[in-house]
Amino acid sequence: MLIFGIVISFSSRITRILQNFIYDNYPNTGGLKVHVNPINSGGEHASHTGAILTIQDITNIKKLEQIRTEFVSNVTHELKTPLTSIRGFVETLRNGAFEDKNVAEKFLQIIDIEAERLYMLISDILQLSEIENRTVDENIKPHDLKLLMEQILPILNEAASKKNIKITCDIECGLKLRANSDRIKQLMINLIDNAIKYNKESGSVNIRVCRSEGRLIIRVSDIGIGIPAEHIPRIFERFYRVDKGRSRSMGGTGLGLSIVKHIVN
Ligand SMILES: Nc1ncnc2c1ncn2[C@@H]1O[C@H](COP(=O)(O)OP(=O)(O)OP(=O)(O)O)[C@@H](O)[C@H]1O
Ligand SMILES: [Mg+2]
User: Fold this and answer.
1) Most confidently modeled of 2-11, 35-44, 81-90?
2) Any atom of ligand 1 within 6 Å of the Cβ of 254
């Protein structure tokens, strides 16, 4: 916040002074809030002899408001899609489709998939808000990354073997990371899950972890469809998907990489 006080005797000059001040100091502002408090120097009946202007740059507040509005509208949309589908299939079953056992079974499967999607979406949103709200994490300890990876890979084996995908790991021995082990697992699972999901049949995934210039570098690479360069800047945004149809049909919520970013931060 910036407090700018001026004493003015000619009110016609106020606007010009203010305009020049704003143009000079806030050329790229997304919004300013200006409060004007008149100063009375000569008692109750005196005319105003000056004013104190308080100018507040509200660009960040506006940006945050916009992010919050977009988030709420995205969440609503994402929750509505599977719910609409569930209600549609329940209605069709009620209208007689349940009498055909095969059709009923198929519809129940779809309802199950959509309900699972809802569940995943809600748990991803809860995870994000838990990571965001936790300022102090008491579970930070040094962890051996090779050992952590041995616990993570079995979780992803089923998805990998369904697509006949080979996962290889190059992790230097003795590499340790001070972190919350659950968060690191979550981070790795999200990255490797993507590498499997957006890979081709019988493809491969390679995980490399090494130290370089005091930093730990985790690299997960795959030989799948890849991410076109123009999408990279937005890939960590909540609900952002390169191919909305494809990701949704794969059950993705578009929150995985956003969770990864929050964990790293
Ligand atoms: N390894 C990858 N190869 C190709 N595209 C990817 C890869 N990883 C992510 N993407 C693209 O980035 C988007 C965002 O990924 P993210 O993990 O945030 O969401 P998701 O996988 O769609 O859903 P979720 O992870 O929440 O189930 C994906 O929808 C996909 O389009
Ligand atoms: Mg994902």
Assistant:
1) 81-90
2) yes
